[in-house]
Amino acid sequence: MNSSTDRVTICSTRQELYSAAANEIVSRADESIATTGRFILALSGGSTPRALFQLLASSAFRNRVDWLRVHFFWGDERWVAADHPDSNYRMAREALLMPLAIPEENVHRIATELETPDQAAANYESMIRNFFGVATGTVPRFDLILLGLGDDGHTASLFPHSPALEEQRDLVVANFVEKFKTYRITFTPLLINEAASVLFVISGSAKSDALKEVLKGEYRPKLFPSQLIQPTNGELRFLVDRDAAALL
Ligand code: 6PG
After folding, report:
1. Tens digit of each residue's pLDDT (9 = 90 or more) over 146-162
2. Cα–ligand 1 centroid distance for 51 (angstroms)
3. pLDDT of 9-42, one tens digit each?
4. Which of ligand 1's atoms lies nearest the C-alpha of 206?
5. From CA 89, how far away is CA 143, in angstroms rounded?
């Protein structure tokens, strides 16, 4: 059983949440492929999306998308090797890309093997620009960007009080995250807010405080960076389960 406001859908269980998210992705993919011949998707990281990716690769969904027309990017990545247990790419490769036999040319990961986080961010930005065929000054438009919500209100790797929150020019930056004492590579709000559709998928009571603040609290984006996500000409949706929505 789901209940919706204009942009928030509350699902009764995690299973319903993942099913709703998978259906949303499938319908977005169908729409984009019918219009442009391809679907340009940025995946979120962390633990929440693993079960979603596994569901998309399952017999219930795998035949509902022409996956050869789907291009996979990442909204953020940890500063670790591609085969590291914490790698968002590795998680997606195991849960989605390998089970669906996605061809390499459709997989556009962040090159964390480069010398520095800044080089990896710059490399990814030029990869994105080349893929979309856009020069500096134009912001490319992803068909769909998946996002998660941290219990501190972050999304992608846009953490509270981190330098990336102020970025007004670049599409992808290396962002030093104080709480982890390490770098992350992340889409900036500038790039995320250009997307045709942004979908938050949020599960669990640990997110309930942050979600209440993001959706109903005072506008304090330095504290709750997910508030920066306001697509300029695109759709913003929150798919949440009942535990995450407990304080709404
Ligand atoms: C990451 C993510 C991050 C994630 C949130 C929620 O690299 O960790 O991109 O933004 O979506 O931290 O993570 P969980 O799903 O693990 O709670």
Report:
1. 999 999 999 999 999 99
2. 13
3. 999 999 999 999 999 999 999 999 999 999 999 9
4. 17
5. 19
Check pocket membership of 47 for ligand 1, CB cut-off 6 A: yes
**Are the C-beta atoms of 197 and 143 separated by less than 8 Å?**
yes
pLDDT for residue 1 is more than 60: no
| CB of 48 shorter than 6 A to ligand 1 | yes
Give residue 45 CA to ligand 1 midpoint distance, Å.
Answer: 5
140 lines ligand 1 (CB under 6 A): no
Q: How is 102-141 classified by DSSP, letter by letter? A: --GGGB----TTSSSHHHHHHHHHHHHHHHHT--TT----
- Distance between Cα 168 and ligand 1 center (Å): 23
For the record, the structure tokens of 10 come out as 């509350």
Residue 187, SS3 per DSSP: strand
The rounded percent of the chain whose pLDDT value lies above 90 is 96
pLDDT in tens, 185-201: 999 999 999 999 999 99
Query: How far is residue 87's CA from residue 93's CA, in Å, rounded to a whole number?
Result: 10
Residue 44 Cβ < 6 Å to ligand 1:
yes
